[in-house]
Amino acid sequence: MHQLPQQLANGIILGAMYGLIAIGYTMVYGIVQLINFAHGEIFMIGGFGALTVHLALPAATPLLLALPLMIAGGITAAVAIAVTAERFAYRPLRGAPRLAPLITAIGLSIALQQAVWKWYPDAKKARVFPQFTGDSLHLLGATVQRGELFLLIAAPLCMTALGLFVSRTRTGRGMQATAQDPDTARLMGIDTDRIIVIAFTIGAAFAAVAAVAHGLKYGQVDFRMGFITGLKAFTAAVLGGIGNIYGAMLGGLVLGIAEALATGYIDHIPGMAQFGGGSWKDVWAFVLLILVLLLRPQGLLGERVADRA
Amino acid sequence: MRHRPLLIIATALTTGTLALTACGSRDDKDTGTTGNPGGKTTTVAIGLDSPLTGDLSALGQGIKNSAHLAVTNANKTKEVPGVTFKFLPLDDQAQPTSGQQNATKLAGDKRVVGIVGPLNSSVAQSMQQVAQANNLALISPANTTPDLTQGKDWKQNNRKRQFTTYFRTATTDEVQGAFGGQYAYEQIKARKVYVIDDQKTYGVGLAAAFAAKFTAMGGTVVGTEHVNPEDRDFKAIVSKAKATTPDLVFYGGEYPAAAPLSQQLKDGGVTVPLMGGDGMYSADYITLNKKSAGDYATSVGKPVEQLDSAKKFIADYKAAGYKDRYEAYGGSTYDATWAIIQAVKTVVTENGGKLPDNPRTKIVEALNKVKFDGVTGPVSFDQYGDTTNTMITAYQVDGTQWKARHSAPYKKN
């Protein structure tokens, strides 16, 4: 049992990354009821944006100094692509039946993957992402890598900022109003198109932060990294209650911890030895999703309309 | 939320669609050398199948270039008088479905006399049937799963040739894994090992052969774990492995996952070397992994740099100016391609200097008897289609390079 603190730490770190990406799914869904399947690729492009900045800087730049610039670069790339996608791929389909934008999103996802594969130099295989050197840190009985510390700081900061933005600012309240009833919101003088662009922007920015965290954690970015991670983050958003920003983060954490604990402990249960370990962790994560959806179809924190944004 | 069912169905459908569409082949460009201005020469083609894109493209590109080099050399020196070879490389992205499509495509081309490839054992399984049905020779420079040639009962020593048209210039995991087990016990002096595999045909077979030999010699397997090949987060497994205090971790799988695994092991406090097979033996393993120092990998054959027979290959490869390195399978690929060229030569000679109309069956027959000194040493195939060369080398990461530590032919005993 003495690996419990470590496994929890593993789960929380992984979950915080899922949560940051899940914000993008949940905000866009909350406002326009669109599952933006290209969001995983927005995440991936954020990673490549940050990598580009790193490559452009002199090689001797300390990573700690370069990091803010890399984050800015990642956010710029991700937001640019997300806003362009919204303007040209999704907005023309705003009034169309729901399946049309869904399929568009899938098409866009493939197109973005291929574009990076084709045009980013050497992106046909995984590219090396810079990492912090030095020993890992020991916190509360768990070992944490230096790069992971970034996630542990960035995720709560981002969530607090987003929470304040949505509840305190005019634009944030406009988002809540649009989520509740877009037509009435427009009648009340809210520029819903602008609100939607802001939702895409925030989602993309958060995904870019997650992508930088991904790069620091694993030391690599590649053109396919958004697919599996995006799917997991989407699961996290549904688990937490799609449309709810706190739900997305909670869903991410629950999913991450469930994966870590399933890997660590299922095979210790008598008779379950063959269902444990790394190969079954995704199965258990989805079993959890199904159980939650059976008992609470709206997700863990779903359907609290007032908080939806 | 009345649309919940739609949401769920759409999710399920799109997941499936994405998984399928990710498998299409991407690079169908002909980079072959053609040019047969209606002379007396016959043009035949040698197909190639390897992952030219994706995670394993470093190895796959090395395979493509080395085969291209063999074809170019054969054309330049007119190795087979009256026959010009064309080169048809296809990308399988390490996906069995793509491999099968490529095999079907090449088999349908009457000019194709043989296929070099694939890299992955799981891809080979999907190509063997197609090659067999079309009497087309398929020679892999890299497949190491014993089942491919000897059938699934090889463990009970009930060996039976599976496909008469399938050959390989790489030795099997049975040999490589056992060599690794012996090396770990005798030379690394490990006694407790934690074994991880990636659930692919190659990884599982290699890890099983390693564990069998290691325990037979007196070592202990303190834990086993299986991961998904796409995983990059292994922290939960690291925590588990740490609790068992191993003095070596063995990974049956390939470098894209092995690199983050090794790094996370060391970051997580498991400060022992990671050991793997030829799938881990890539320069990219070291660039992707800042904590690779001290890790081990075995690979088939001797390092080509140490072989006199390989000097010409290395010089030619450099002179040709390929963008990617030849990597682990350069030598064995050149030999596999050269084996097809030699088989064509035999058939042409026996047919009075002219290629017969349907040469495929005859080429396969000739391959069974082929014998020449290749880049990696003497090349010939045994009764299962396996190479008779069982030379294996253990490498260790030293600084930023793999250094050969120990080479020996493995003998079963």
Automatic annotation (TrEMBL), chain A:
What is the protein's membrane topology class? Multi-pass membrane protein
Q: Which GO terms describe its biological process?
A: D-alanine transmembrane transport; L-alanine transport; L-isoleucine import across plasma membrane
Query: InterPro entries, from UniProt?
Result: ABC_transp_permease, BCAA_transport_permease
Q: Which keywords label this protein?
A: Amino-acid transport, Cell inner membrane, Cell membrane, Membrane, Transmembrane, Transmembrane helix, Transport
Keyword Ubl conjugation (UniProt): no
Q: Which family does it belong to?
A: Belongs to the binding-protein-dependent transport system permease family. LivHM subfamily.
Q: What is this protein called?
A: Branched-chain amino acid ABC transporter permease
Q: Which organism is it from?
A: Streptomyces mashuensis
Taxon lineage: Bacteria, Bacillati, Actinomycetota, Actinomycetes, Kitasatosporales
From TrEMBL, chain B:
Q: Does the keyword Signal apply?
A: yes
Residue ranges occupied by any Leucine-binding protein domain in the UniProt entry? 43-398
- One family name in Pfam for this protein: Peripla_BP_6
Q: Which PROSITE patterns match?
A: PROKAR_LIPOPROTEIN
UniProt cross-references to InterPro entries, sorted A to Z:
Leu-bd, Peripla_BP_I
Per UniProt, the keywords (alphabetical) are: Signal
Source domain of life is: Bacteria
Q: Which residues form the signal peptide?
A: 1-21
* Keyword Protein biosynthesis on entry: no
**SUPFAM superfamilies linked to this entry:** Periplasmic binding protein-like I
Similarity-based family: Belongs to the leucine-binding protein family.
Q: What is this protein called?
A: Branched chain amino acid ABC transporter substrate-binding protein
Recorded source organism is: Streptomyces mashuensis
